[in-house]
Amino acid sequence: MNKRKARATARAAALAEVLRWHLEYMRYKGDLEDPPVVRDGVAFYQVGRNASHYFFAGVDSDGRKFICTVGDSCDENGELTVVEHVYEVDTFSGHYLGHY
After folding, report:
1. Does the first or last residue of the chain, that is N or C, have fewer Cβ atoms within 10 Å of its Cβ?
2. How many domains would you assign to the chain?
3. How far apart are CA 52 and CA 32, in angstroms?
């Protein structure tokens, strides 16, 4: 298998994993109409939440995996703000992505 085909296969497998998590989360939530959030060309799908954060996972066109967290935080003045973090990961395994 050439590198291009291998990369496309890996990307498809990673995206299928993200979409499965997203659909499981949406089914639990009772809302299957939740479009992805796009950041820097990566479509992020919500895969979980907790009391203060929402968790999203996405895969770019090269097959790189990303996690995005959005949640409440206090700034240096003690004011409540919304903070978004996007970071690349080698694997989704082992990362806390919230719960239902």
Report:
1. N
2. 1
3. 22
